[in-house]
Amino acid sequence: MLTLTGARAVLVDTGTERVGDVHVTAGAITAEAAPGAEILHVSGCVVTPGLVNAHHHLLQTGFRTLPGTRGVPMAQWLPTMAAAYMRAGVDGELSGAAAAAGLAESLLCGVTTVADHHLTWPGAASPEPSVAIARGTAQAAARLGARLVFVRGTARDDPEQAAASAEAVLAALVGASHGGVSADGMLQVAVGPAGVHSDGPETFRLLGEVAARHGLRRRTQANEQVDVAAAMERYGRRPLDLLEEWGWLAPDVTLAHLCALTPAEVDRVAASGASATHAPACDLPMGWGVAPVAALADRGVAVGLGTSGGGSNDAGHLLCDARLAMQVAPLVGRPLTAREVLGMATAGSASGLGRPELGHLRPGAAADLCVWDVSGVADAGVADPVAGLLWAAPGRRPRHVVVGGRVVVRDFVLQTADEADVVDALHRRLGR
Predict the structure, then answer these.
(1) Do 40 and 55 sit in the same domain of this protein?
(2) How are beta strands 16-18 and 9-13 bridged, if at all?
(3) Phi/psi at 7 (nearest 5 deg)?
(4) 231-253: string of b/e by CB count within 10 Å (b at 16+)?
(5) Is residue 176 pLDDT above 90, yes or no?
(6) Are 270 and 381 contained in the same domain?
(7) How confident is the model at residue 75 (pLDDT cuts 50, 70, 90)?
(8) Overall domain count for the chain
(9) What is the H or E stretch that residue 398 is in?
(10) H-type alpha helices, 299-418
(11) Is position 256 within any domain?
(12) Same-domain pairing of 318 and 222
């Protein structure tokens, strides 16, 4: 039980702001305070919903700024990353150590939910090594107190092995209950091929069948320039043509990147009911361009925000990426307001995950929230403190972070693990 009192502003959702207290009981936002609740004084602060990172590759946290991965074509980037993974040996220990570092960073930056699109798997016929990798990531999230959406992805994997592994990962992490979400809402399983540039129709079909059997969300990457080029070379068609034919342009699907969309394809995504994830701090360094997210949003597409992984974006700082999204939007369409982009980083991302209880602070919502101190010199002269969250202080971090009613960051310090221990564990595993 918790009551936050004295906030300068509370961003309830994209269209609602107020002053006053925020009350938490039994892990949910409530209209009234609970007797005996802890009082957290937040004067001089803005309270927002916890940020939702809709597209991350947590394994890449252990492989940031690798030589040969910056300013190079995708055809060079992929084998460089793959060679690094092979040298390290991807297993449950490495996935857990990398996830712990990535999730600790996320919490310290105000991200309370992370969707981890894991694409690197052993080629074993048995699903057990894959389950160990998934379990390592899930255990790291549980230890740190972060919400995790584990996406059993594929990238040139054997289709039948990938589908069997997805079934085994689901059973091991959350059981076979319909929807793929644990009872406490802290863990979710989804499926997602890397894209038509790496996976063929059989992979999309079999993973789609797994999703249909268990009510899982489906996620894939589409319309980066490399994706368009590969689809045209291999099939003589554009990615959305293939995704629609293969049954992956639908309301339960989220499409990441979408940089190379034509106006007609924007309309096509909107008509399908699919959602989108914008990842500008990956797309720009990789040379893929800027997704037309304002056009997508104006046509009713739910747009979320993601960082992607450390191989292309070396930070898991979603608020910083939200600032970038706002700044580059006029290059491909109309400007986006700070509130629109904050909505993408919260409710928009949550919508793509099928999680209506996340991304807002209305009564009944999950009590995931951030407290941003706007009383310092970095916010001096800011007339609009909500807009100032993005326009001012690019490296801003929250003072407090709450996940499911639990304070996991207090006064800028992670409460659920020692940062130095998290760093040391990853470096030891990598031999650094």
Answers:
(1) no
(2) antiparallel
(3) -65, 145
(4) beeeeeebbbbbbeebebbeebb
(5) no
(6) no
(7) confident
(8) 2
(9) none
(10) 318-328, 338-343, 349-352, 385-391
(11) yes
(12) yes
Q: How far apart are CA 246 and CA 236, in angstroms?
A: 15
In this structure, are strands 22-25 and 16-18 parallel, antiparallel, or unpaired? Answer: unpaired
* HEC secondary structure over 350-378: HHHCCCCCCCCCCCCCECCEEEEECCCHH
Summarize pLDDT for 158-168 with one digit per residue, the tens.
999 999 999 99
Q: What is the pLDDT of residues 1-50, one digit of tens each?
A: 999 999 999 999 988 999 999 999 999 999 999 999 999 999 999 999 99
Q: What is the pTM of this model?
A: 0.97
Instruction: Yes or no: say if 133 and 91 are a contact pair by the CB < 8 Å rule.
Output: yes
Characterize 21-60 residue by residue with b for buried, 16 or more Cβ atoms within 10 angstroms of its Cβ, and e for exposed.
bbbbbebebbeebeeebeebebebbbbbbbbbbbbbbbbb
Which amino acid belongs to residue 238?
A: R
Question: Does 45 share its domain with 57?
Answer: no
Cross-strand pairs, 13:
16
Sole residue written with tokens 């407090």: 400
**CA nearest to 346, candidates 328, 336, 358:** 358
Tokens 């045209």: give the residue.
232
187 located within any domain: yes
Number of residues assigned to the chain: 432
Decide if 225 contacts 257 (C-beta within 8 A): no
Give bridge partners of residue 53 from the DSSP assignment. 114
At residue 125, the pLDDT reads 74
Q: Which string of DSSP letters, residue by residue, matches 130-192?
A: HHHHHHHHHHHHHHHT-EEEEEEEESS--HHHHHHHHHHHHHHHT-S-TTSB-TTSSEEEEEE
Q: What angle do CA 109, 114, 117 make, to 5 degrees?
A: 130
> Quick one: pLDDT band at residue 432, thresholds 50, 70, 90?
confident
45 plus 92 within the same structural domain: no
CATH number of the domain at 92, please.
Answer: 3.20.20.140
Check residue 372 and give its pLDDT: 98
Does a structural domain hold residue 210?
Answer: yes
Dihedrals φ, ψ of 224, to 5°? -70, 160
Count other Cβ atoms within 10 Å, centred on residue 164: 17
Same domain, 263 and 114: yes
Identify the CATH number of the domain in which residue 403 sits: 2.30.40.10
Same domain, 113 and 175: yes
Is 427 within a domain? Answer: no
Helical H segments across 6-127, by residue range = 74-88, 92-108
Residues 6+ apart with CB under 8 A from 270: 296, 299, 300, 301
Residue 141 sits in which domain range? 51-352
